[in-house]
From TrEMBL:
Source organism per UniProt: Ciceribacter lividus
SUPFAM superfamilies given in the database record: GntR ligand-binding domain-like, Winged helix' DNA-binding domain
Domain of life from the UniProt record: Bacteria
Residue intervals of the HTH gntR-type domain: 16-84
One Pfam family matching this protein: FCD
Name of the featured protein: GntR family transcriptional regulator
């Protein structure tokens, strides 16, 4: 019985792999124009020969392609290729972290979301989540003291705070934006080393205030500290933007 179950499990996994492989092949052929809209795909019998797979694999692959809007099975007539669906413009895909106006747009949006995230984290954090926030803060400090890039660690700290809300939509939002929402290069461009270090140190002090308020369960304090942090960043970027425009 156990052996039969294991064999069935391996068979299911193998079928799943074959389906994925066939879907990839057919999708590429359709998108490459090998099959034009309105063309009929080869019959199940022919595809089992062409691709050396079972009818079950063929049917599952066609179901996937149908869900993607690439084909349409017609009763008694076969499977026909459709016009490829229009590409979906995903949000935040055109953000350019080297363009100051893009940075400002993201910071305004983050301000609206993360102020409340900090307040919720102060109220809802678990001991494990609080430890994670403190660990990410320490990671950031180590990089600052070593004079290394901090954008990734900065993002990790903000993500840990978002996760401590225990509302999955907050970290999903930050992950959708990505670490490009915590830029550095535009602000530091043209600055000498001492000014860059002072800027990063200021950011660390602001983070420390946020983390302290969250650790103390201070909802209002966490909200105020995050507001100060993000609006301070907005002010700095807006000042750079104005200087840039004045040079045009």
């Amino acid at each position: 019985m156990i052996a039969d179950a294991r064999q069935a499990s391996r068979t299911r996994k193998g079928t799943g792999t074959l389906v994925s492989q066939l879907v990839d092949k057919l999708r590429k052929s359709i998108l490459a124009g090998d099959f034009q809209p309105g063309d009929r795909l080869p019959s199940e019998a022919q595809m089992t020969i062409d691709h050396d797979v079972s009818r079950t694999v063929i049917r599952e692959a066609i179901a996937v392609l149908r869900s993607e809007g690439l084909v349409e099975p017609r009763q008694g007539a076969g499977v026909f290729v459709l016009d490829p669906p229009a590409p979906v413009n995903l949000p935040f895909q055109d953000v350019d972290s080297t363009r100051i106006s893009s940075v400002i747009e993201l910071l305004e949006l983050r301000t609206a979301v993360e102020i409340e995230a900090a307040a919720l984290a102060a109220l809802r954090r678990s001991p494990q989540q609080e430890e994670a926030i403190l660990a990410r803060q320490r990671d950031l400090l180590v990089l600052i003291e070593a004079g290394k890039a901090t954008a990734d660690a900065d993002f990790a700290l903000h993500l840990a705070i978002a996760e401590a809300t225990n509302n999955p939509r907050f970290p999903e939002f930050l992950q959708m934006i990505g670490k490009g929402g915590i830029p550095r290069a535009a602000l530091q461009d043209g600055q000498d080393t001492s000014l860059q270090h002072e800027y990063i140190s200021q950011i660390h002090r602001e983070h420390a205030q946020i983390v302290e308020a969250i650790s103390n369960g201070d909802e209002a304090g966490a909200r105020a500290a995050m507001k100060l942090h993000l609006r301070g960043s907005l002010s700095r970027y807006r000042a750079i933007h104005q200087r840039t425009l004045s040079k045009l």
